[in-house]
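B., you asked whether I could sanity-check this one before it goes into the benchmark set. Here's the sequence:
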Amino acid sequence: MLQEFKAFIARGNVMDMAVGIIIGAAFTAIVTSLVGDLINPIIALFTGGIDFSGWFYVLDGGEYASLAAATDAGAPVFAIGKFIMAVINFLIVAFVVFMLVKTVNRIKEAAETPKEAAPEAPKGPTELDILMEIRDALKK
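And here's what the prediction gave me:
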């Protein structure tokens, strides 16, 4: 059983998957930082600093100053603003990932594009051409 496990781990697929997970985690941190630290402040600048995350409804009818106060009090809360912010962040992250993948694909295609083919050297006569010449020479 230990030998089978070693063979399983030594296969390229498992190592590729492990590398993909590690790179994916690092990439997630980069994209999250890009969205949170660069893109969201620009959006806040144009929208006047609107933050939907404070928009909530308390389902028990109580009055609370903030979402944190309502959740600390144990009140049932419908946090619509947090959901809206999650959707906005998802759309931003999806767009950033799309642009990064598109750029990587463009770079990959440029690297894989073969250089212009050299002009082919002129070829000699074909077998048919030679046979036709022999036939014509024999007719004379």
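One thing to flag: The chain has a mean pLDDT of 81. Otherwise nothing jumped out at me.
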